[in-house]
Design brief:
Blueprint lengths: L1 H8 L5 H18 L3 H8 L5 H29 L2 H22 L1
Length: 102
Amino acid sequence: MFIISFVIVGNVQDFSGFLIEMIVRTVGEMLVWPGVPSVAAKHAPKGRAGFYQGIVNRTATGGRMLGPLFGGMLVDIFNIRILFQTIMGLLVLVLMLTIVYS
């Protein structure tokens, strides 16, 4: 759903397209983020679930901190299309790694 939302926002021309993109991304976030700490707890060694959940949450916070910085740099140096292509490429990479892991 994240990939779909970035494909949509990279090709919209008016407000209704941005609205659709935000709905798609919000639904994706609602489905993904509540389950991430539980997956970390499930795969953690016995008695270490909280530690691994903390690592997952710190990593997510780091991404929220550094993402706008590097995204802004990409847009300043190149353009917004390069930013969207980079994000979509990273999401596809994560999807492939998830499939391989599963």
